[in-house]
Amino acid sequence: MSVPTNLHYTAEHEWLDQTAGTATVGITLYAADALGDVVFVKLPDLGSEISAGGVCGELESTKSLSDLYAPVSGKVVETNQAAVDNPALINQDPYGAGWLFKVEVASVGELLTAAQYQAQIA
Predict the structure, then answer these.
(1) CA distance between the termini of the chain
(2) Which of 3, 56, 91, 101 holds its CA 20 to 30 A away from the CA of 41?
């Protein structure tokens, strides 16, 4: 399974793309495949403060309900309404159109490199 090398990852299968103090967060292809068809997305509220390692949302699929964990601490500055309206985007393009939210980063939690994440899911 392909793991983009330009991103960082959590042990709970979220990815993080950080540039200039703002980070985009989503779930990995591995997580999307394991969940099955995502049918409902609950994201953190705009302006809310999230804490690295804490639960900040939920993803419901035809198989299960899974918590979404924050890879960083900070303030949520944008959510992907397209993914909320059409959760299938998360399965179709988890690293692109299926991103979940953006956060103004205050501090970073424990992150894995692409190689470390690849080893975890192997």
Answers:
(1) 9
(2) 3
Residue type, 66: S
For residue range 2-41, list pLDDT tens digits in order: 799 999 999 999 999 998 789 999 999 999 999 999 999 9
Phi first, then psi, for residue 77 (nearest 5°) are -110, -10
3-state secondary structure of 27: strand
Residue 96 · residue 72 · CB < 8 Å:
no
- Say if residues 50 and 60 touch (Cβ distance below 8 Å): no
Fold adopted by 13-117: OB fold (Dihydrolipoamide Acetyltransferase, E2P) (2.40.50)
